[in-house]
Amino acid sequence: MNSTILLVEDNPADAELAIRAFQKNNFTHHIVHLEDGQEALNYLYDSINEMPRLILLDVKMPRVDGIEVLRKLKSDENKKVIPVVMLTSSKEERDISDSYSLGANAYIVKPVNFTQFTDAVTQLGLFWMVLNHPPK
Amino acid sequence: MKFYFEKRVLAGFLCTIIALALLIVFSFSSTQRLIQTSGLLNHALSVSNTGDLVLNNILDMEASNRGYVVTGDSIFLTAVQNASNPLDRCLEKLDSLTASDSVQAKRVDSLHRFVEEKRAWSRHIAGIRKQGFEPARALIAEGKGRLITIKIRACIARLQFRENENFQSVNTIKANSLSQFRLSFIGLAMASFITIIYLFYVINQTLKARNEAEANLLQTVYFTRQDLEARVEDRNEKLAEINYIYRSLAANIPGTAITILDQDERYLLAEGDLLEKMGYIKTDMPGKKISEVITPKNYEYYEGLIHRAFAGETILVDRQTLSGYYTLMKVVPLKKSNDEIFAIMFVLIDVTEIKKIQVELADLNNVLESKVTQRTEQLIELNKELEAFTYSVSHDLRAPLRAISGYAHIIKEDYAPVLGDDGNRVSDLIISNAIRMGKLIDDLLSFSHLGRKEVSRAKINMNNLVSEVLKEHTIQEDSRKLNIKTLPLEATTGDVNMMRQVWVNLISNALKYTRKKEVADIEIGSFKEGDIITYYIRDNGAGFDMQYADKLFGVFQRLHKMNEFEGTGVGLALTQTIIKKHGGKIWAESKPNEGATFYFTLPTII
Fold this sequence. Notes:
The complex is a heterodimer. By secondary structure, chain A is of the alpha/beta class. Helix content of chain A is 43%, strand content 18%. Chain A has a single domain (5-131), classed as Rossmann fold, CATH 3.40.50.2300. A five-stranded parallel sheet of chain A has the order 2-1-3-4-5, sandwiched between helices. At the A-B interface, helix 1 and helix 5 of A face helix 9 of B.
């Protein structure tokens, strides 16, 4: 079973903190960090790469944003089964409703409080990587 | 009054007439009776006289007889013969006089017999005398002749007595009826007299009253006439005044011309400064025909209007005159009370200035409209920018904060021993401040979101809403004593989510500011006044000084120190925005350390 987590995050600090949070909670999964939507699409549509178990997708990114990536993935028969958790700084209603209507599996607003942030990431990982059973 | 007089006069006349009639009747009957009485008297006198005549003739006869006896002269026999004829006439007269009276008639019959006896005796004596004087004298001496005469005398006396008696009785009756008549006559005459006097009095009074009334009437008529004349004069004066007022009115409305044309199209009136402005001399116009005053070209235009107005139409035209003025003209037919049109009136108003202003205004409006469009576009643009800005704030400002707080954590976690106590304290401060800033940003964002949010309206059961919010917020409370009293609340209509936010803010404030009290007393209630419902929440918490009350609802305004009571100072600002969006008001009353009461109103009709 694939065990890759794809983290698409343009902010290096957020990425580092997220990775640290995973590490602190002993997630042994391979975390692939990409810095924008275009990179993510390139990665996902490169047949060399194993399809990730979970995609953590930031909404606001240069070049191709998270919403765009989400739209592409969820309209792709092969890719739409991959759980996508939108990670964002904003509580913007429009972003939230857009995400869900496009088929995002969860929407998480990154807390400023690092403890809460760690908790959120941990719970995310726990749920999607351990408890959730994707269709084979 | 008049009727009364007439009735009295009529009654008087009636009385008089009756009295006079009675008088006539009485007089007539009395006269009749008098005539009757005097007839009787004559009768009695005739009978008596005739009786006397009979007796005289008898005595004559007797004297003549004696003369013959004495003398034997036959001449005395002729005298006896002569006395016999009147005697018979007298007896005949007596017969006729006593025919109606049987008693007297009998007596006359007896008289007849006695007279015949006397005649017979006379003839006997005469016969005896022829034989000689002595036998005749002896016969006379026997007194038989005298006896007959006495019988005759007695008979006549009885006749006369009876007549006299009759006459006397009639005379008594006559005297009685005469006195009666006199009395009645006097009475009736008096009555008539009195009635006539009364009538005279009444008529006199009536006439006097009538004369007086007539005099009064005359005087009144005189005064009324005077008054009428005065009034007519007054009316004329007023009419002149009104005429003057109308003329002045027509003449003095700035920028107008008022003209009236009669049926011959002659000016009855021409007033107004516009006439002069257009080059007419208004004093020349009255009496002239319009065609003599205005140009033929102008008249061509007016002719149609004049005909239409005389046909009863009221016309309003907007026209640029030949002299270049913009005018508004109304043509009005003037009607008599029987609807006949006797004249038409032209009212012209100079609207040149207004026209100019209208054009300017239209230009300005266009400019304004384009400006509004421009501004609206700008506004839309700005709004978009603002949205982008808030988006960017929420996204871009939070990211570094997360980094600050995250890395401070890492330092703490990884380098705690190296940092020492002070280093750790500073790390904590960095973290808490970053978190606080995050909260400020969150609140600011929700505040700016709220401003743009539309209020959706639905029925809200405030009791349910408040009890839900209370449950959520008291669940985290520790062991301190909460004494929360919720009175039945009026229902309302509004945005449920926003209203929940209001109660969350107010209830959490009440809980927050009573935290230092041993027992938190909180009361929630509402009351309705007319169309307005007022809700309130009262606590016994820290309260505030009313002199800062105006700052209470400002964004980021706080009345307490951070280390006393935490908060960003957005909650009440948010609450006020929501209440205002619902058409209500919010205010608070408080004293430091004596708690606070927050009130907010919601209209029942929106």
